[in-house]
C-alpha cells in the first residue's frame, strides 16, 4: 500500500525494488528453463520481470494459506488480489510498450508449480529439484524466518542446493530490521547489515556480482516495522 507502494516516484521503495529486478533481468544474462522463487509469500510482484526469461517459474512457500492465495491469482479467480498497478509499472519501466495484460497472462502461464518449502532443511523441497533451477529468487524470506545470522547463512546454503552450478541468485531483503507487524502479530527478523549479506553469500558458496541498498526515508517509516533499508543482491553459485 502507499506510501511504500506509491508509483508516482522512483524514490519510493516498491518502485526501487521493481527497478532493481527489471534492470538485472534486462541484461539478458539471467535466463533458462526454470526459475525458483523461495518464500514467495502471497505475492507475485517479484516475478514480473523474471517471467520473460524462463520457460517455467516455481513458486514456493512454507504456509498453505500463501500457496492457496498464489493459486487463486494464477487461476484468475474472482477475489484474488489485484496486482495490476504493479504489472503496469513494471511494463512502464521495461519500456517495451507491452500491454500489461500480456505480461499478466504470460506470468500465469509460466507459474506452473506452487510447492511447499522449508528453508531450514538441507533439501528445502524434501527432494532435489530436477533439473536444478537456472536461477533463484528470494524476496524478504530468509532473514524473516531465521532466528539468528548463523541460521540465515545455513538457510541460504540450503536453498542454494536447488540451483545449478553457475546459476544466478537474486535476493531482496531487509537491512537493520528486528520485527514487522502482520495484523496483531509481531514477527521477529534477523537484523542484517550489508557486510552480513556479503559474508553470508560467500559462506554459502556464492560469488557476489552486485549489491545495492536503499535507505528507508523517514516518510516511509510507518510503524509496521523498524527497517532501516532494503538490499538487492545478485550473486552466482
Automatic annotation (TrEMBL):
Family in the record: Belongs to the class I-like SAM-binding methyltransferase superfamily. NNMT/PNMT/TEMT family.
UniProt cross-references to Gene3D superfamilies, sorted A to Z: Vaccinia Virus protein VP39 (3.40.50.150)
Residues annotated for S-adenosyl-L-methionine binding in this entry: 39-40, 45, 61, 66, 118-119
GO cellular component, one term: cytosol
Keywords: Methyltransferase, S-adenosyl-L-methionine, Transferase
Entry annotated with the keyword Membrane: no
GO molecular function: phenylethanolamine N-methyltransferase activity
Highest taxon in the source lineage: Eukaryota
Alphabetized PROSITE patterns for the sequence: SAM_MT_NNMT_PNMT_TEMT
Protein name as catalogued: PNMT methyltransferase
One Gene Ontology term from the biological process aspect of the record: methylation
